[in-house]
Design a protein that fits this description.
Length: 571
């Protein structure tokens, strides 16, 4: 069966679309509208916009959309079916979405209509200034998260959202398949697919896609705007052992404590610290956080992957007992509250859901050349996805980009920017730059310069992120969250998710090679047996600080020389 789609371009007012539908009716063909009829609307079947008729067909088990380039081509296609010289373009299934840049009228029953009529292409949910934002937003709010459950099995549905900035249009697609995969990709308003590289290179084109560069910001805010007041900020990380996470953590800590106590590593009084920390963890409801990190560390130890402590995580006695960190914080007088405290996290339970104002942050360094293996382990065992990272154009960079497009010489550009502070406010810069640059500066300031991946952050969730978190398909074929790190509206923590840091440290690559040459196994190293005298003798020579993380920089060496640490504890 053939399906015929009117692709509404919203370019100008006309009755061409009516002609299309008249032709379809004469031929007894089946229409599939790119718009839906608004109830109580007088022009229910009258589309007074320009449009393109796209014809979709299954050929040799492949799905195609035919797009005639001219109105004459439609007539030939419909009335001169035997001609072999039709003026149309063919797109395979992967490219169909490129032509579906729609500006439809919509109804509150949009999803029911589409599913009941077996329409596979969802109209765009329009966020342009000149359409009914309230209607579109209401549809998005009511249906986005529940969409998958309402789609028949093995159906593929394409959905788009359109945005308008500075006269430029952009949209992206959401592909939901039976494999539970979501994909986000960008299109421009002329139906040409825009990949990451092209997307951000277009910053130099003042007449091109300046608005498109803000698309990511739009997408990041849409989920939040639509769910304003309804965002569920409860904690969303996995329960490793169900409701028994805390009991499991407590028992593991007690076993580890007993083992170290019998070996003479711990004192009897140290149990008070364990009781205190476990009580704080119980109140904060984050036992699973420790269990996941412990699981990753055990997997690394089993596979000979080096790791090391850093930051406030080393302040936790529970981390030490669970093997997450290697040094006893009691021995070095480190305070647990620096890592986790009820006063900072402020947990509360509402309808059996846990809400917090802050989350723990455990920074652990891992062998850099093994980091991808660790991330894959997290992705395979838990519901994990990478975290996105964005660079924005500041005023000075924006001026340079605009000047380049306007054919300013390097010397002239330098003359404008050399005395400007990197963080100069836009309002101040506007009064300094030439008029032709001033015209474009507000449009360029603050747009995304580049999109990348967080250096270490991994989101580990209780449910599959592709069903609950806005994602972006990167060039390497993997997904990043559109939310970034932080506590704001468009951030990981702002929606109740916890970031797990898997930090890659190149120094471990060198140490791993050294251990291999010396035939020393990772488990043979006991950090409890550090010899203070040997350590200090070795570190007296500043040249020996090379390749020692956080001590190898020139600044660290100068500080080390000035402080003159006497023992490992001082370091």
């Amino acid at each position: 069966m053939k399906y015929y789609y009117n692709i509404n371009l919203l370019t100008c007012y006309s009755n061409i679309s009516n002609k299309f539908f008249s032709l379809l009716k004469l031929e007894n063909l089946i229409p599939r509208y790119s718009h839906l009829i608004i109830p109580d609307c007088n022009y229910a079947y009258t589309m007074d916009y320009d449009g393109i008729l796209a014809i979709r067909e299954i050929i040799n088990n492949d799905e195609y959309v035919f797009i005639p380039k001219t109105f004459d081509a439609y007539l030939k296609l419909l009335y001169l079916k035997n001609t072999n010289k039709l003026n149309y373009e063919i797109f395979n299934e992967k490219d169909i979405i490129k032509i579906l840049m729609l500006y439809p009228n919509t109804t509150k029953n949009i999803f029911d209509f589409l599913i009941n009529n077996e329409v596979k292409f969802l109209p765009a949910i329009d966020y342009c200034d000149y359409v009914s934002i309230d209607i579109s937003r209401n549809i998005f709010t009511n249906n986005f998260l529940s969409l998958k459950d309402r789609i028949p099995e093995n159906k593929i549905i394409y959905s788009k959202m359109s945005f308008c900035d500075y006269g430029q249009n952009a949209s992206y697609k959401l592909l939901i398949s039976d494999k539970e995969e979501y994909k986000l990709q960008f299109m421009s308003n002329d139906f040409e697919f825009v990949d990451n590289k092209t997307l951000f290179n277009n910053i130099k084109d003042l007449t091109g896609l300046t608005g498109l560069l803000k698309t990511i910001d739009h997408i990041k805010t849409i989920y939040n705007d639509a769910y304003k007041g309804k965002i569920d900020r409860c904690l969303k990380f996995p329960k490793v052992h169900g409701d028994e996470d805390f009991e499991f953590l407590k028992n593991e800590c007690l076993k580890s404590f007993l083992d170290k106590y019998q070996k003479g590593i711990l004192n009897e009084s140290d149990i008070d610290r364990l009781i205190y920390e476990l009580d704080e963890i119980r109140k904060c409801k984050v036992a699973g956080y420790f269990l996941i990190y412990s699981d990753v560390i055990k997997w690394c130890d089993k596979n000979g992957i080096l790791h090391g402590d850093r930051g406030s995580a080393a302040s936790s006695f529970v981390n030490y007992l669970m093997g997450i960190t290697s040094f006893n914080p009691i021995k070095y007088n480190l305070m647990f509250d620096r890592f986790l405290s009820v006063d900072r996290i402020k947990p509360k339970i509402v309808d059996d859901k846990i809400y917090v104002e802050d989350v723990p942050d455990c920074d652990i360094d891992f062998q850099a050349n093994k980091r991808d293996e660790i991330v894959k382990y997290l992705e395979d065992k838990y519901k994990a996805v990478r975290i996105g990272n964005y660079q924005y154009l500041k005023v000075k960079n924006a001026i340079q980009e605009i000047a380049r497009k306007l054919k300013y010489s390097h010397q002239d550009t330098l003359a404008i920017t050399k005395d400007l502070d990197d963080d100069i406010p836009l309002e101040q810069a506007i009064n300094i730059v030439p008029d032709d640059i001033k015209e474009h500066l507000p449009n360029f300031y603050g747009i995304i310069k580049s999109i990348g991946t967080h250096a270490s952050g991994i989101l580990v969730a209780d449910k599959n992120p592709v069903e609950n978190v806005p994602l972006y398909l990167m060039d390497d074929g993997k997904y990043n969250t559109l939310w970034k790190e932080g506590r704001g509206l468009n951030t990981i923590s702002g929606h109740g998710y916890i970031k797990f840091d898997i930090l890659g440290l190149k120094n471990f690559n060198i140490i791993a090679k050294l251990l291999n040459r010396l035939n020393i196994k990772l488990n043979d190293i006991n950090y409890e047996d550090i010899n203070e005298e040997i350590t200090n003798f070795y570190l007296e020579d500043l040249n020996r600080l090379d390749y020692i993380f956080q001590l190898e920089s020139n600044l660290a060496k100068k500080m080390y020389s000035a402080v003159k640490p006497k023992k490992f504890f001082d370091i």
